Here is the input.
Amino acid sequence: MSFDSAEYEARLARTRDRMRAQGIDTLIVTDPANMHYLTGYDGWSFYTPQGVVVPHEGEPLLFTREMDTGGARLTTWLEDRQILGFPEGYVQQRDRHPLEWLAAALAGRDLGDGVVALEMDSYFFSPRAYEALRRSLPGARLVDAEELVNWVRSVKSPAELELMSRAAGIMERVMRVAVDAVEPGVRQCDAVAEIVAAQVRGTEDQGGDYPAIVPMLPTGIGTSTPHLTWSDEPFRQGEATILELAACCRRYHCPLARTVYLGHPPRKLLDTARVVEEGLEAALGAVSPGATCEGVEAAWRQVIARHNLEKKSRIGYSVGLGYPPDWGEHTMSLRAGDRTVLEQGMTFHMILGLWMDDWGYELSETFRVTSGGAECLCAFPRELLVKR
Here is the structure.
């Protein structure tokens, strides 16, 4: 486990406070990040149904495939009696579902009635899983948990912030390796091999984990759109490459994005890079406890509007603990209309991407909210990184 028992007890208490506020009797958590947050469970087993059951009182339960119960015993603070394994005969069958088995287990523990909240928008909770519970728990009223545990996670403890700081130390090394790897004639896949090795190798003091998202590095015309990965094509002189990467320490992430140009960059790219950096500094300067997410975004928008630029998408989101396919927490976003109030201990990935017809530019920072404002976790040059 990454944390002591007091940390997990505090997380469980905050979760139950929210359950009471929402009138929830039993919460079923299926997001792997939320499972890890509440129990410490860490295994690549989320391709089959699994989760944590939190009753409004009494012991939480973890359920997973029977063969993965050993992993639960090794990585969680739970006692054996709290770890439930569904039989192999329920795995990927058309005529039965593991959550039917879970429903019977809950009914046997008097947890099958009342208001049962489900993570309706979890990547790992399918329509079949919902139907299995609906049919098998006729005395329950199934409701949406509305990212309940995600919101509990939004304010980080000192122990969590320490892991994110360690991830930042790894990230600085990863980004240096990535920038060095982008050279004319080098295949993109070979550069990614160096990046992944750096992510896993970490530093002398801290090894790295696999990030929740693979390296993204669109190059050339690919920089005109986000979220592209790599090919086996070589980098070319006269082209830009966006590096959107992360380092991960015990499942806690520190993402970072930079843009590299091989050769002499065009004036439009240089000018855009300066505007984006100015906007980043303005947005970071608007961060403080009591400020709002939309207020931070407005500071950025005011800067780019003076230069006749526009960004329709959000400029950041809450970040921290994560499993594939996302390191975001699915709660707060730095965008117009999000009036969430910032608190000390919240952490965000502020990512400023502008994507044009055939070119683009990205710059990002991961920061924590402190009493004095935004504290960026990484120290890495922010300007357009030009390699001639």
In short: The longest helix spans residues 158-181. The mean pLDDT is 97. The CA atoms of residues 220 and 239 lie 5 Å apart. The first strand starts at residue 26 and ends at 29.
